[in-house]
Amino acid sequence: MTDISNELIATAAQNNVIREKNLASYEKLVEKSNYIYWRNEFWNLVDQYNCVTSKPVNTIIGFDAHSTDQMIKRMDYVKLIK
To answer: Residues 37-59: pLDDT tens digits?
Structure first.
């Protein structure tokens, strides 16, 4: 899994593909859902890659909110993942 993740990260960086930190997935991690797609291990690899390269992976934060309540709730998560 690590090798595949590193290949994905390097390819994204080389081709200017932006990676998304999706807050709906992060919320499932925090709430200990059975459907966790957020992997801290992956984002740690991205951080490690960005520390040793001249062409880092660009990331955005995606709210994936379908209501005002979800958006407000996920604003708190933004602070946790920065």
So the answer is: 999 999 999 999 999 999 999 99
Q: What's the start-to-end Cα distance of the chain, in Å? A: 24
Contact 25, 38 (CB under 8 A): yes
Question: What per-residue confidence (pLDDT) applies to 62?
Answer: 93
The alpha carbon torsion through 12, 14, 16, 17 (nearest 10 deg) reads: -10
Contact 22, 38 (CB under 8 A): yes
Query: How much is the CA Rg of the chain, to the nearest whole Å?
Result: 14
Q: What is the 3-state secondary structure (H, E, C) of 34-65?
A: CCCCCCHHHHHHHHHHHHCCCCCCCEEEECCC
Nearest CA to 25 out of 3, 5, 42, 7 is that of 42
Using the structure block, give the residue that is written with the tokens 């859902």. Answer: 33
